[in-house]
Amino acid sequence: MDGRPRIWQELATYDGTNNWVSDEGVFWRSSNGSTWSTWGNEELYVGQTVQFQFNMHKQNQGTHYADHLKAWVDWDKDGFDDPSDVIMYEEEILYSTNPRNNSSFTDTSYLPPNTANFSYFSDIFTIDELMTGEIWLRARVTCSHSLTSPDAWQNQWDGRAFKDIFKATGDLYQGEVEEWSLKVNSVPEPATILLFGFGLLGLSGLSRKKK
User: Fold this and answer.
1) Which of 54, 74, 49 is nearest to 201 (CA)?
2) 192 — phi, psi (to 5°)?
3) pLDDT number for residue 99
4) Residue bearing the bigger pLDDT, 176 or 61
5) Nearest to residue 122, comparing CAs of 193, 30, 58?
6) Would strands 117-121 and 20-22 be described as parallel, antiparallel, or unpaired?
7) pLDDT of residue 204
8) In terms of CB atoms within 10 Å, which end of the chain has fewer, N or C?
9) How far apart are CA 191 and CA 111, in angstroms?
10) Do residues 131 and 184 touch, judged by C-beta distance below 8 A?
11) pLDDT mean over 6-32
12) 141 vs 189, which has greater pLDDT?
């Protein structure tokens, strides 16, 4: 590790030896491009496709059930409440049963270092006219106890569906939330295409961290 403060879950990129690379943890590529980009100033056009990548880093020490990532895009611009807005959900289980019931467990127990970093890829989405304008992407990472709090610690092993209770809004005592603005334009005129080329997805972003 590089001396940066260790937090439980974050959207960020680390290398294979668990050293911090950047605070960027959300990436995109358009029209089946081969290069993943961070959020910039280009724009997405109707008719293109877009795919998202999410990098979750977690502190590799803890006794909770799992770490969770969920992401939404407000395709229809009415909030993140529609099931179709969910573009990604993943959970990484640390302990299938409560380790605090194990008398040999101590707070200095560590998971293997190679379980600290995870990359997830969304489906590929086609941009249509109904998405023209500004739409928003929101990504959140947290832990199972943060999702079940203030329930008792052991209740996170009760088999509940964490995907359903992990909402786009609401306070969580652990993790991070990031939001990004997606600017979608109609297909440019042919002269514009000749002058500027086909647009790539580009998004000016707003990042909010909760630690």
Assistant:
1) 49
2) -65, -40
3) 81
4) 176
5) 30
6) unpaired
7) 41
8) C
9) 56
10) yes
11) 86
12) 141
User: Is there a cis peptide before residue 150, judged by omega within 30 degrees of 0?
Assistant: yes
Task: Round to whole Å and give the CA distance between 126 and 68.
Answer: 26
pLDDT in tens, 113-128: 456 889 999 999 999 9
Q: How many CA atoms lie within 13 A of 96 on its CB side?
A: 0
What is the radius of gyration, based on Cα positions, of the chain?
Answer: 19
58: tokens are 């977690």
The dihedral of CA 198, 124, 169, 25: what is its sign? negative
What amino acid occupies position 135? I
pLDDT tens digits along 154-206: 999 999 999 999 999 999 999 999 999 888 999 765 544 444 444 433 444 44
What's the CA gap between 190 and 168, in Å, rounded?
Answer: 39
pTM (predicted TM-score): 0.82
140 CB-near residues (< 8 Å, 6+ apart): 69, 70, 71, 166, 168, 172, 175, 176, 177, 178
Distance (Å, rounded) from C-alpha 92 to C-alpha 13?
A: 17
**Nearest Cα to Cα of residue 46 among 35, 29, 31, 27:** 31
